[in-house]
Write a structure and sequence with these properties.
Layout (H helix, E strand, L loop, with lengths): L6 H17 L9 H6 L8 E6 L6 H4 L7 E6 L6 H13 L4 E7 L3 H12 L7 H15 L16 H20 L1 H9 L3 E7 L6 E7 L13
Parallel strand pairs: 1-2, 1-3, 3-4
Antiparallel strand pairs: 4-5
The structure holds zinc ion.
C-alpha cells in the first residue's frame, strides 16, 4: 500500500488537473471500464470539494478528475449547513481524505441574490431564502457593497469580485470553526482546507485561502 497523500500532494493533483483543463489537454483519468470495476469494492478519493451547484462549475471536469477521485458536496453558493458539514466530516474522518476545497466562482447567482437582498431589502421567497441567509453574513462582516469604498487594498477588484472572494474565505473560516474533527487533523498536519476561486471564462482555479500546509501561498487578502 502506498503512503497516504498529504494535503500538499492532494492540492498538487488538483492544480495540475486544472492546468490541463485550462490548456485543453485533459487526461480524463479514472473513467475506464477497468477503473469502474476496481472502485466497486471501495473508494479512496483525493479531495473533498464543497462547490457551488452552478452548472458551469462541474467539479470533476474543471480539475480533470474522474470516478473515485473526489468526494463532492454542492449547494447553491457553496453554503454550509449541518448536513453539508456532516458530509465533509464523513470524507475527512471515515475516508481519510487530506484536503477540503471550498470552491467559489465569478458570476455566482447566490452571491448576486444576497447582494440584491441587502440593497433592496427584499428577500427571495421559499427555501431559496435559506441560501441567501447563509451568504449575507460574509457580505456584512467581511466586505463592502457595490457603491461603497473597496476594502483596504482590495487588489483593485470591483466590489462584486471582492464579495465573492470574501464569501469563499468566510466559508473556509466557518467550516474550520464548526468542525473540531477538521481542526484536529489540520493541527496534526493530516488535513488542510483551501478556498479556491474559479473563473468561468478561462477555467482557472486560483488559491485564495489556505488553512494548513498545501505547498502554495494563497492570494493575499490585502494588497499593500
Ligand atoms: Zn454559484
Amino acid at each position: 500500500m502506498t503512503a497516504a497523500p498529504t494535503p500538499a500532494d492532494a492540492w498538487a493533483t488538483l492544480r495540475e488537473g486544472n492546468q490541463r483543463f485550462v490548456a485543453g489537454t485533459m487526461d480524463h483519468p479514472s473513467q475506464s471500464v477497468q477503473r469502474r470495476g476496481e472502485l466497486s469494492t471501495g473508494q479512496r478519493p483525493t479531495a473533498v470539494i464543497l462547490g457551488c451547484s452552478d452548472s458551469r462549475v462541474a467539479a470533476e471536469i474543471i480539475f480533470d478528475q474522474g470516478l473515485g477521485d473526489m468526494f463532492v458536496v454542492r449547494t447553491a453558493g457553496q453554503v454550509l449547513d449541518t448536513t453539508v458539514i456532516g458530509s465533509i466530516e464523513y470524507g475527512i474522518g471515515i475516508l481519510d481524505i487530506p484536503l477540503v476545497v471550498v470552491l467559489g466562482h465569478d458570476s455566482c447567482g447566490a452571491v448576486a441574490a444576497a447582494v440584491d437582498a441587502l440593497e433592496t431589502g427584499r428577500m427571495p421567497t421559499g427555501f431559496v431564502r435559506a441560501i441567501v441567509d447563509r451568504v449575507i453574513p460574509a457580505l456584512l462582516t467581511r466586505a463592502v457593497l457595490p457603491g461603497e469604498e473597496p476594502i483596504a487594498g482590495g487588489g483593485g477588484l470591483p466590489p462584486a469580485d471582492q464579495l465573492r472572494r470574501e464569501h469563499v474565505r468566510s466559508t473556509v473560516e466557518m467550516l474550520v470553526d464548526y468542525s473540531s474533527m477538521l481542526r484536529e487533523r489540520i493541527e496534526a498536519g493530516t488535513a488542510a482546507v483551501v478556498g479556491v476561486e474559479y473563473t468561468l471564462a478561462d477555467g482557472t482555479a486560483r488559491l485564495v485561502d489556505a488553512v494548513g500546509e498545501v505547498g502554495e501561498e494563497p492570494l493575499p487578502r490585502y494588497v499593500a
